[in-house]
Structures
1.
Amino acid sequence: MPCVSVNAHTPINLRTLHHHSWLRDACLNERMFMMNLANRRALITGGARGIGAAIARSFADAGAHVILADIDEAAGASTAAQIGAQFVPLDVGDEGAWTAFAVQHPAIDIVVNNAGISGFENSPGPHDPEHASLAEWHKVHRVNLDGTFLGCRYAIAAMRAAAGPDKLVSGSIINIGSRSGVVGIPGAAAYASSKAGIRNHTKSVALWCAQQGLAIRCNVIQPAAILTPMWEALIGDGPDRDARMAAMVADTPLKRFGTVEEVAAAALYLASDASAYMTGAELTLDGGLLAGSAASPGG
């Protein structure tokens, strides 16, 4: 059973912590120290709004020097200014843009590959396997999967550079996948395919880094039904807002949307020393959807 040591002679079982407020506070302080990102450089792509903005804010609050990247220069610069981050315009699907970024930022400690599109932004579809166009298929994969590949490739090189010669190379790569990358989504085939690719590439990157003797960890967060601006547009702000929200999460066991702050909390954990033994793993934030049927056993 896990325990903490107040000093070399006093191992304390965690079950007893609730009886000792001073010990509980010590544990919380240690946990907060492990989640501290002070003096670490962190890149968050797609950071102008939604999940990316929440992650950027969380990292900045934890002491990181945040580089917020996005193709929306106005929104990205505004978000960066609000949280004290540096804004850099970046098209994640453009290899040349990553090369230029690497020249200006040759060393990094944390990379969050968050930028992504659904395919529905400028095209209502169809996006099913039978009728989707090859151009739309390529467009989604260029941002979601190519962008993640290029981001991971940059991260490994920049984390090597951050360590310098004769030092342990370390860092954290966090890819943002989706529940849609674990199950089939007939009406959004390209999106589901791209997110499945991200899920698998995360494991390839994790194993590659470990095989090279690098302490670079790579993990994926797989959210679902997170209340972002995309969902807000569908829900609206009319008198039936609450009813529409309830209907949209009726099949979610927890019966609610997740929040961008909850995704950011998971990202902070993966970026920090608290997850030092975690690589190639999937963190699913979906209110229980992938657990299976929400129905209770009949009797």
2.
Amino acid sequence: MNDRAARNAAVLAGLRVAVGLLFVIFGEYKVCGTQFTLGGGFQFWINRFLGEGGAYPFMVPVLRDFVLPHATPIAFLVAYGELAIGVALVLGILVRSASVCGGIYMRSLLLASNFPGERAIFWQYFGAALNHLVLAFCFAAFALGHADQTLSLRAYLERRRVTMS
């Protein structure tokens, strides 16, 4: 690998680890505490998205009629999903799978909470969704690129296997 490719791989790996650490932090507090999963934290956020008009109109019945009635199992899915995505990204294992799941999760959050309003100008849709779009673009880069080439358990095991052969 030439210097430029090695530097790009290291930068992509650094971004992957940084995003992974964010997900580990947020997943850990949800998994290790009970406020989000059993204490109404998840329901608070869904009700806030609905009450503040943050959900895209087609998502309102989904949130109200499916997500809220099944809030506790979905809260656990969110908590353990965030933690699993984070651990996979930090360790560099199953990066593509974790990134696809992360992209789906970001798209769900975007549609549930980033509606800019009925009369919004085209660019305002992107401005309202910036917090979720940036992570969605990171997940796309991880899924489409070779983000597990450097700073990963996979790369370490592969190098070790080659040296032992």
3.
Amino acid sequence: MKLYLSSDIEHNLREAISQDNVDGFSRLACSLKWGKPSWSASQLLLQVLDDKEDRLWLWATKLSCDENPFSRRYATVILFRLWEKDKNRAGKILANLADDEHWLVREYAHGIWGELLKKHFKQVFPLLQTWSSNPSANLKRCVAIAVRSAGNLRKEEWAEPLIQLLEPLLSGKNAYVRKNVGPYAIGDGLLRCYPDITLKHLRRWAYRKDEGTRWNVAMAFASYGGNRKWQEGLETLTMLATDKRRYVWRSVASALLYLARRHPEIQNTLKTWMTNPERAKVADTVLKCLKAKKV
């Protein structure tokens, strides 16, 4: 396994891990950048600790309580390894990290929960169901990230359960959550991997009256999956374009702008909307943005 670390840093990290010098490891590893360097430190940590359960728990416990969030992040990969040994204990610490005050720690933890959902679907699913209705925006966002991750496996029997996990999140308007629901978990995730089933639910959700759900439905089409199903998306967006609430119609305009840049023929439809008082505002907004982009 190739590690993207300088020989000096790798040597010092390996020495700290071998001596169970958690503080020494933290001082060295906390400054490593997101991506290959920090990933390399994580892999080295697992490699040296091997599968020795007592040492894994020692490191997971200490790192998860470290004052430096750039050190706390490393606890998540160890806890993934420990899940099968004691899922209740590992899950409790990982839940705290998923709700951590620092975004970087949450990012790592949310990714790990996605991996756990893929590997232990039946065990993890009920816990994420409770998080879908949890007051914490951090835990709700974790559900969205995990759904997006698990959807990539394209297991047909998971499609409906994954949609069930997202449904309680639809009406929320918290930016940290919704940006990872409509355009990401649904659009880039489920609509890409399970297009027919997801479209069925998007059409159903579009008839709901709350702003949050309608925002997520519209923004689901401002995505890779939405681009592949742009004609079906245009039908739903046509209906939502009549909503006079700024929160909704602006999301419709954003989705249409995204699609029109990839499918210029949509402009012909928008031009016909200019004579329709219910949809003229959306059409005018999108056409002006398209025109400005050309200048």
4.
Amino acid sequence: MNEKERYVSCIVSQEEADEMILLIRRRKTEIGREKDSSLAAQVRRAVLDYVRDPEDGRPLLEYVSDLLGRDGQYLSNLFKEEEGVTIRDCMLEQRAEYAKDLMADEGLTITDIARRCGYSSVAHMSNQFKAITALTPTEWRRLERSKEKGNFAVND
């Protein structure tokens, strides 16, 4: 059993992992078939898939380009024009949102969350997360827990 398999087996069962992989593959197939949706919306969904499947290993633009069957530079320019942000910035925002979702699970450590989100280290995740949210992951988690308990104060 390699390191990746050991890590996954600690978090989810093999059956759950297989089910997640199947769902991701189905979603990727759906994206390729969506004809009614704008291309920018398809790019956004492809970016979300990329964030939730960090083990793919391909660079972001190559991943999106391959998935949608379009030239990467064309998609990049179109997305920036229609959405007002780059595909990379969209990915960073999506990663932060995914990390927030995972932080709701108190059983996951920040290290676990960083790995699931595809970050190379906790420090890398913390820096990018703080750039987007103005809080470190630990500060954000603490604030959210305080809100849930009703023990937060708003600074004037």
